[in-house]
Amino acid sequence: MKINDQLVLVTGAGRGLGEAIARAFHGAGADVVINYRRSKEAAERVIEELGPERAFAIQADVTNATQVKAMFDLARGEFGKPVSTLVNSALPDFSFNGDERPKAADISWEAMAAQLEGSVRGTLNTVQTALPAMKEQSFGRIINIGSNLFQFPVVPYHDYTAAKAALLSLTRTLSADLGPEGITVNMVSGGLLRTTDASAATPEAVFDMIAENTPLRRVTTPAEFADAVLFFASPWARAVTGQNLIVDGGLVKG
Questions:
Q1: Quick one: pLDDT at residue 195?
Q2: Is 3-247 assigned to CATH 1.10.540.10?
């Protein structure tokens, strides 16, 4: 299925990376559902800029299965077709500032659990809700947003990194389970992005360090990252599943 025939739901799309991904799909001709949890004004601003014909904002907490089901039902009612591509981009509350993150002796299980709830439970809720329609169509594209930090742990984001590593494992087991149904499941993992709401607290020295160690000598932007997400929803990726594509300008290899 071509991107311009699809209904794409992007979680956490009211701002930041999710917004960039939603804008990229809209620019490619897709109908887009912009999910948000608290960023109502930001999401409405995006809809106003894109136009209401092919974009619709829906509030839902992805960790709440009831709200997720209502969101998918509302999306199908609004566009008259089911979600064909799901992008799990919602990020639990987190600030990318390594100087202020708790170290090994101080990290709490509550912090760990919050990230696992958002990344793993949230993804499980959206995937399970999307599955019946995807199976009905014998087509589906699930794209999870990961991180290069579990391959390049330069900062002690223990909770965030552990949750993203678990999400990669879920991505690969889901791909094996759902492949016979015509559904692909992949992950796109970035490093530090310049700049999102989450990375706004990152010291400039960290941006400089990343740029110096990247073959492209610069920090990846949300728009550049979003382009890679589109690949996995396109016909060009029809034989690709269970993969983790790192989009960080070549900082991390493999």
A1: 79
A2: no
Please state, as a whole number, how many other Cβ atoms lie within 10 Å of the Cβ of residue 44: 14
Closest CA to 60 of 118, 12, 27, 108: 12
| Strand, coil or helix: 153 | coil
E strands of 14-67, at which residues? Answer: 31-36, 55-59
**Quick check: is 160 catalytic?**
yes
Active-site residue among 96, 139, 157, 160? 160
Residue 128: count other Cβ atoms within 10 Å of its Cβ.
Answer: 12
CB atoms within 10 A of CB 237: 17
pLDDT in tens, 187-220: 999 988 887 777 777 888 888 988 998 999 999 9
First to last CA, the chain: 29
What separation in angstroms does the CA of 151 have from each of 186, 244, 246? 17, 12, 10
For 208, counting Cβ atoms within 10 Å of its Cβ (0-12 exposed, 13-18 middle, 19+ buried), the class is exposed
Least Cα distance to 5 among 139, 130, 184 occurs for 139
130-163 pLDDT, tens digit per residue, is 999 999 999 999 999 999 998 888 788 999 999 9
Angstrom distances, CA of residue 187 to CA of 24, 102, 151, 201: 17, 27, 14, 25
| Lowest mean pLDDT segment, chosen from 29-33, 74-78, 141-145, 150-154 | 150-154
- Length of the chain counted residue by residue: 254
Enter the pTM of the model.
0.95
Question: What are 7's strand-pairing partners?
Answer: 31
Res. 254: pLDDT tops 70: no
